[in-house]
Amino acid sequence: MSARNLILADLDGDRTWRLQDYLARGGYAALKKIIAESTPPADIIAEVKASVLRGRGGAGFPTGLKWSFMPRSFPGAKYLACNSDEGEPGTFKDRDILRYNPHSVIEGMIIAAYAMGCERGYNYIHGEIFEVYDRFEEALAEARAAGLLGDKILGSDFSFDLFAHHGYGAYICGEETALLESIEGKKGQPRFKPPFPASYGLYGKPTTINNTETFASVPFILRDGGETFLNYGKPNNGGTKLFSISGHVNRPGNYEIELGTPFSELLEMAGGMRGGRKLKGVIPGGSSSPVVPADIMMDCTMDYDSISKAGSMLGSGAVIVMDETTCMVRALERLSYFYFEESCGQCTPCREGTGWLYRVVHRIEHGLGRPDDLDLLNSVTTNIMGRTICALGDAASMPVQSFVKHFGDEFAYHIEHKTCLVPDDVQREGSKIYVGPSC
Amino acid sequence: MLEIEIDGKQLQVADGSTVMDAANQVGAYIPHFCYHKKLSIAANCRMCLVQVEKAPKPLPACATPVTNGMKVWTKSEAAVKAQKGVMEFLLINHPLDCPICDQGGECQLQDLAVGYGESKSRYQEEKRVVFNKNLGPLVATDMTRCIHCTRCVRFTQEIAGLMELGQAFRGEHSEIMPFVEKTVDSELSGNIIDLCPVGALTSKPFRFAARTWELARRKSVSPHDSLGSNLIVQVKHDVVKRVLPLENEAINECWLSDRDRFSYEGLNCASRLTKPMIRQGDSWQETDWQTALEFAATRLKAVVAAAGAEEFGALLASNATVEELYLAQKLVRGLGSDNVDFRLRQTDFSADAVSQGAPWLGMPVAEIADLNRLLVIGSFFRKDHPLLAQRVRQAAKRGLKVASIHPTADDWLLPVSARMQPKPSEMVAALAAVLKAVADAESKSVDAALTVLLPADMPAEAKAIADMLLSGRQSAIWLGNFAMQHAQAATLRRLAQEIASITGSSFGVIGDAANSVGGYLAGAVPATGGKNAAAMLSESLKSYVLLNVEPSLDSAAGERARAAVAGADFVVNLTAFNSPELRAISHVMLPVSPFTETSGTFVSCEGRAQSFVAVAKPQGDTRPAWKVLRVMGNLLSLDGFDYNDSEAVRADVLDITAFPVANLSNTLDGLTVSGSAASAGIERVADVPIYATDSIVRRAPALQRARDGAAPAAYLSAATMTSLGLNAGDAVEAKTEQGSARLVAKADDTVADGCVRIASAHETTAALGGLSAVVTLERV
Ligand SMILES: Cc1cc2nc3c(=O)[nH]c(=O)nc-3n(C[C@H](O)[C@H](O)[C@H](O)COP(=O)(O)O)c2cc1C
Ligand code: SF4
Ligand code: SF4
Ligand code: FES
């Protein structure tokens, strides 16, 4: 188990995003084969099921299974949406896929549309990345001009058109139903489910939403077989996955590895700990996944099952590495502020609770903590979790619960001494950025 | 059907039911805020969380579909824990200063906090403050109290038809607000006050006027349109403080129009007449009832004796009660005259000769939901009939297709799938064209009397309306107020009747007032060749009795009506209000009760007789008009005025238990129709603005300040404006044969070319008279 580039394969040229380049790398071979052989849609879904590709957007839901939920003979439009909203702190893989390999996403979506009978698709691109948006539009134009997209694709009876939709930078628009609302031109607010998008999605029509990386994995699966893909990972955790590593490592960036690769290997790929300092904790799957203390993390392999056993989630694969210079209270304060600002405000526990959590953590960080604050935090998170319309409520709560659970002593110290356990100058040294006095 | 168990109770519910529906069915109360039976499901407050077997987390009852065999606990420890958790969140940013909140005592949050809230808050941080919004003169805001249930937002979007409110910003910064710089102008806006579970939206006119527990709640019926909305009138010390809907699914559901809700301010206005008054020369003296009544009776008798009974007549308000209308016509007839009418805005009375009963809607209001085709002829539908339009709007969502034939295309906030926009003088031709189209399509012959009207060629729009009607399963054709006030109203009715009979549609008249039907049943129309309202107002009679009528505002003739009455020798005026106009034309003014201070009956458009009792003591020396008329009858020594109560009067007119009441008919067989003479020149299209319909609303200050209370202007399409060399914003002088008015020209492309829309029932336009006359417009 180690580094293996499928999505990122051969991306060392300087125009890898061009159609020509993609074709030269074997791109669109899967689509061409499907069109030439008129592969039955059910076979494609079976192949994706066989690959055990799990959604790369966060929840890790088996993609083949999701595709099979789409009604087969539905009179009227069906839609496909790609979730490139990527707003979770720590996650920056989808923008690189779109920047360097946009046609893999386009091909993946065309195949998906073919398999599910969708006539139209949208790629919802995060609002704050402009270059990527422009580049994706160019790629769409190339694909259309080459007859790969639009009416009667490659001369077949299959038509599918795909459009880019530029968001406005709201994290919540990455939640799949908020994303649909946003495409419809409404305020991006999650819908209550059921009904699920497969029965009532975009404009009320059956819709499938997948993450950018999920779609980018599809061409390989169809070209080289689901089995092959699965075998790069481990059972129940098929294939390779991109990990966005940030924090106190020497070479932060995106790394594509086989699922099941030990975390220690991944850490090494990223150049190891900065300044050779000691690892304190890792947020393994994006800011909403529970933090995992160093010792537990070092025993984990990077796959859904192992991380889940460690009490966290693989999520979107954003690995935030924190060394011993990190004040965990300050880190949590920053995270809680994010969820407080990004809650859509629709449902009561999240709208009111995220602000409460942030204020309490902020207070602790600023020396105004009270002895029962940790109980309060735990109780408020319990009252949020599982009681909201979408998973943002949980996403805001899990960091709080896990930070308090694993680093409770730091919080207690803060409350008692009204200052950080990790001295300010140590923090400053570790982050190499100015850290103001905490209290 | 699905099996479900709620709190141990087994029951069956229809497919598609939610847990909330099921709970309602067994009477298990689940606390809730955002859920409302008439609105879409938002599932955002989370107060209704319940425990469901096998579900790992509590589920919102309002949004969770029942599945077969489901087991639900609404009051289990887990459920209550979840509910209490939500309540805590709702309260952390809520001000909790109920003693200074206008909603105090009638607040859902306050009520539920008693059961689900803690006595002490764990939230020690600063609370959120939200700036208030100006939603207009009717709805006050206290936005810090908002709990973001979005009921108000969903109401404007789903029920009122236009999303005038939205939730802006995110998270804790979320604010309910109107669109930038706008107010909420819906004619149904007051309902958001009822819907708001907290004190974020309250009634501006009622603000801080009373506490809910100080108010007596009494049932009544709205006097403003023909729907007969049921009211709860709230009274403190015999003053009406507030009006709320009395839920009646068959009529107003749980809604009220703003006119129904806020008109009560007019009842308390300074211009109420509270003492009988007699004119002496140019001055008015207050007097007692006996003196006033004796004066009225003696003089009336003398004038009638001198000038002949045919020189005496009565003009009655169309929102007078059945009892008042009945006794008034009895008095007229007792004095030997047949000059009596309550249809002051009508101009064509030729239907009377062949009419077989009171014109009515022709169907129950509740059955609008079952219609799938509707043609509305000559109506400012949404403003004339706010709640009827609301019902049609809901039906339109379920597939009802609506067509309109009307000179203006004002936005009804519902899809209109086919439309003809004739000038007023082309209305007959337009209807005749539709008639021809349906007859041709069905290969049916048209009644011989109507063939003269049928056009040679047929506009495509007429064909489209015909096709729409014919493709329906259950269709209806309604004539609106504009059609009934039209100079060829009877011909329009006859044509519509024929279209309805060929297309198998239900056929009816919406009616412009609370007693548009009741007036006929009470016999308040000429029966033996007497003068109708137009005739009584075109030339002065020697004497009149007026009942709650302000001639220049309540009649088609406008200023000329005032002049006609002013020309009489003696005018007895039964009125709730005093005004310069009334003082100028009357000789004795008798203060009579508005609907809140008398018992009485209205018969609604669907033929529903609804009686009500006084909700407050009459102000000052005011007396119920039926009693005043009874005494006058006695003083005039007329037979048949010995009633003990208003029920006895009503019993002479109708059977309150019958629905619909007897003697309704829209049929005009045998009518001599008249073709239309195309007119040269700009034609006036006159609406009666929603807040100008009667003397009570005209005196309701908050409604007058609403957007719909704006003073009349001259609205013209851009093309018409250009053809006249006018620009939007120009001051213009509008002139008719009768008189002139100074107005501002405003661009409005919903008005048919060649027409100008100028509202009536307003003092600035009363001089123009005639509701659809030819108008010249000149820049001044
Ligand atoms: C608050 C919130 C934010 C989310 N943001 C993203 C996102 O930026 N990108 C993404 O792919 N999925 C995001 N998701 C997950 C999506 O809702 C959805 O599960 C995913 O797009 C499905 O694709 P997949 O099955 O391919 O993973 C988010 C979910 C939540 C609750
Ligand atoms: S959980 Fe938060 S983000 Fe999700 S719908 Fe509720 S308020 Fe919006
Ligand atoms: S203003 Fe009232 S009705 Fe509107 S969202 Fe707030 S609490 Fe709900
Ligand atoms: S009533 Fe169910 S969530 Fe509000």
Q: Can you tell me about this structure?
A:
Chain A is of the alpha/beta class. Chain A folds into 3 domains: 19-232, Rossmann fold; 240-323, Ubiquitin-like (UB roll), CATH 3.10.20; 328-430, NADH-ubiquinone oxidoreductase 51kDa subunit, iron-sulphur binding domain (de novo design (two linked rop proteins), Up-down Bundle), CATH 1.20.1440. Chain A is 44% helix and 12% strand. Chain A is built from 19 helices and 11 strands. In chain A, the strands form 3 sheets. In chain A, strands 6-5-11-8-9 form a 5-stranded mixed β-sheet. A 4-stranded parallel β-sheet of chain A has the order 3-2-1-4, with helices on both faces. Chain A has a two-stranded antiparallel ribbon with strand order 7-10. The model of chain A has no long low-confidence stretch (mean pLDDT 95). Chain B has 780 residues and is an alpha/beta fold. Among the domains of chain B are: 1-75, Roll (Ubiquitin-like (UB roll)); 277-354 and 516-657, Rossmann fold, CATH 3.40.50.740; 365-487 and 494-509, Dimethylsulfoxide Reductase, domain 2 (3-Layer(aba) Sandwich), CATH 3.40.228.10; 683-779, Barwin-like endoglucanases, CATH 2.40.40. Chain B is 27% helix and 19% strand. Chain B is built from 24 helices and 32 strands. Chain B has a 7-stranded mixed β-sheet. In chain B, strands 28-30-29-32-27-31 form a 6-stranded mixed β-sheet. In chain B, a hairpin with a 2-residue loop joins strand 1 (2-6) and strand 2 (9-13). Chain B is globular, with a radius of gyration of 28 Å. The N and C termini of chain B lie far apart (71 Å). Chains A and B meet through helix 14, helix 15 and helix 16 of A and helix 2 of B. The structure holds flavin mononucleotide, iron/sulfur cluster (2 copies) and FE2/S2 (inorganic) cluster.
